[in-house]
Amino acid sequence: MISAGDFRNGVTLEIDGQVVQILEFQHVKPGKGAAFVRTKLKNVINGGVVERTFRPTEKFPQARIDRVDMQYLYADGDLYNFMNTENYEQLALNQDIIGDALKFVKENEICKVCSYNGNVFSVEPPLFVELEITDTEPGFKGDTATGASKPATVETGATVSVPLFVEIGDKIKIDTRTGEYLSRV
Asked: Tens digit of pLDDT per residue, the chain (185 long)?
């Protein structure tokens, strides 16, 4: 059990039968009245975000989220197939569970499959991936006065904004959380 006074960002709790993760919290001590904790909570199953306040003495059970490393094998229509690298069990997940998580992920890369009580609710891609540029416009010399960028398509089909000096065939490093170009490899 975690009391509201001990809340921290990223902690996962069970509140009113729902599994929520704390995005932000703030201890508030008004001049008049009792202190309280103002929070922003994200429902990990459906992604909804709500704001709630709690008394610092309220207690909630911590939810156990299982994150298992699985290898992304291939996509077959709306199904995405993963394999547990320890026991070789395979798992097929629907497009609505995956969402945009695999936008920058190639086949055979390791992802984290998140589940609660055996029900898979999301897939976390690796934080950084290295992908090859398959299509982009040429950059022209002298166009770099303001650190300009141009759109480029990577081998997974996603579009990334890259600096003008990046060309077709270059390998680049991408942050999968923001979708931003980091560097050439």
From this structure: 888 888 888 788 988 888 888 889 999 898 888 899 999 998 887 778 899 999 988 999 988 888 889 998 988 888 889 998 888 888 888 887 787 888 888 888 899 888 888 788 888 888 898 989 988 888 766 655 667 788 889 988 889 988 888 888 889 999 888 888 888 88
CB contact at 8 A, 160 and 127: no
Q: Are 72 and 103 in contact (CB under 8 A)?
A: no
Residue 97 CB burial class (10 angstroms; 0-12, 13-18, ≥19): middle
> Which DSSP state fits 137?
P
Task: Provide long-range contacts, Cβ within 8 A and 24+ apart, for 133-137.
Answer: 133/162, 133/166, 133/167, 133/168, 133/169, 133/170, 133/171, 133/172, 134/168, 135/168, 136/162, 136/166, 136/167, 136/168
Structure tokens at 38: 């103002």
